[in-house]
Amino acid sequence: MNMNETAGQVKATALMLAATNTELRNKALKQIAFAISTRKDEILEANRQDIVRSEKENLSAPLLKRLKFDDTKITDVIDGINSLAGLPDPIGKTLQATELDDGLELFKVSCPIGVIGIIFESRPDALVQISSLCLKSGNGVLLKGGSEALETNRILADVISKAAEEAGIPVNWLKLLETRSDVNEMLKMDHYIDLIIPRGSNDFVRYIINNSNIPVMGHADGICHCYVESDADLDMALKVVVDSKTQYVAVCNALETLLVNSAAAPLFLPVLKNAMDAGKVELIGCGRTMDIIPVKPATEEDWGKEYLDYKLSIKIVDSIDEAIGHINTFGSGHTDSIITSSGEKAAKFMSLVDSGNVLWNCSTRFSDGYRYGFGAEVGISTGKLHARGPVGLEGLVIYKYKLTGNGHIVAEYANRTKTFKHRKLDKDCPL
After folding, report:
1. 8 A C-beta contact, residue 348 and residue 325
2. What residue spans of 115-247 are helical by DSSP H?
3. Angle at the Cα of 88 from the Cα atoms of 124 and 153, rounded to 5 degrees
4. Which of 96, 135, 335, 361 meets the CB 3.0–4.6 Å disulfide criterion with 108?
5. Across the strands, what pairs with 400?
């Protein structure tokens, strides 16, 4: 089957999926969670094959860690699906109601986007999260995962699609793509695909934008910062910084650059160095950092790098304004945190740092759809249109206007026989 036929099938099914009720979609999600549990051994074996092949191809350690889909991750995705099933239905919500005139009522109602094409990295758990979010929000989905996870993605797509269909979801709402040529063809399917979400580097996202007429919601580099102010509780700062960097290094919300106020640096950096040495994290820093602790020099290019590894760059700054300026210059608009005892400084930082997620006294690793209570996420948008930050259910719906009347015609308002009331209503759309 060619891409045109595949995308056409998903488009046709998406229109039917949008009309399904909450109970059916939640039933399908629970069926998927059960199927993943019962077919766990098949999934683990497929993942083992991917890992063996990737080790032979010398895939880096951080990417191998992302590729691994073990019992713990399977438990996590099952919990995430069940949590998602318990969330309110994002479809059919009345966002606004207006009485234009007697018997003429306008409703702004949430609805699915339609067909979403998602290109994601070598994380099998991402396939589960993305597909379950699309199902809950009534969207058809075309999925292209990393080639490293080929076997795992195949078995997961099979488990998910079959379980959903057994629950009564229309066939062909989900399709798995496997080749680069599939992606190139997908970029041309603007008559079938409504939105593309690429997860990858800035260069990759730019390539997608430049080679398609389909709207793109970009999830690019996660160049995340933590700024330790002069008045920070240094014990808290150490705990937050270590967690931000080491809890899981191969993810987009891991800390990549640490900024430290010059007044706190002499006390904080030696303690940090000991903790990072224990965690086997390579530190590089500016000249002022090198004067306090033994680290390798950081270059100007390092401030804009996403390491996804046990490596951290450190820069000493003299003020919160300098920290904010550095973040807005070198950051990717993903997630940035401040450690301070001052609410006033925290408010300034959170207002002026131009990122989708700004945090006070907590780890950058909290920047996640599941941890935010969204059920899961299809990615983190670093753009500013439609959705920003972790993109969960609310980011996968749009809206339509429904107008109900009783023989109303515009001519009566044009000749002023009638006049508009434009009165806000407190009621749900009846249709």
Report:
1. no
2. 124-136, 150-167, 180-186, 202-210, 234-246
3. 10
4. 96
5. 109
Give dist(CA 340, CA 345) in Å, integer: 7
Residues 6+ apart with CB under 8 A from 248: 65, 254, 365
Q: 81 to each of 32, 85, 125, 277, how far by Cα in Å?
A: 8, 6, 11, 38
The rounded distance, in Å, linking the Cα atoms of 250 and 257 is: 15
* 8 Å CB contact between 163 and 412: no
Partner residues linked to 283 by β-bridges = 312
Q: In the chain, what are the domains?
A: 3-219+391-397 (3.40.605.10), 224-366 (3.40.309.10)
CB contact at 8 A, 141 and 195: no
Which residues contact residue 216 at a Cβ distance below 8 angstroms, ignoring those fewer than 6 apart?
A: 195, 196, 197, 198, 205, 208, 209
> Pairing state of beta strands 397-404 and 104-112?
antiparallel
Asked if 126 contacts 120 with a C-beta cutoff of 8 angstroms, the reply is yes
Helix (H), strand (E) counts: the chain: 15, 17
In 10 A of CB 391, how many CB atoms?
Answer: 24
Stated pTM of the model: 0.78
Residue type, 109: V
Q: Rounded distance, CA 38 to CA 45, Å?
A: 14
- pLDDT per position as a tens digit, 225-251: 999 999 999 999 999 999 999 998 988
Quick check: 297 and 290 in contact, CB under 8 A?
Answer: yes
**Structure-block tokens of residue 363:** 């780890």
| 307-329 pLDDT, tens digit each | 989 999 999 999 999 999 999 99
pLDDT digits (tens, 9 = 90+) for 168-206: 999 999 999 998 889 899 999 999 999 998 877 667 888
What tokens does 134 get? 């699309």
Q: What is the largest CA-CA distance in the chain?
A: 82
Tokens of 370: 């599941």
Residue 383 tokens, joined: 């753009």
3-state secondary structure of 125: helix
Q: How far is CA 374 from CA 79, 89, 298, 378, in A?
A: 13, 12, 37, 10
C-alpha 332/C-alpha 380 separation (Å) is 11
Contact 240, 362 (CB under 8 A): yes
Alpha carbons 377 and 307: distance in angstroms, whole number: 22
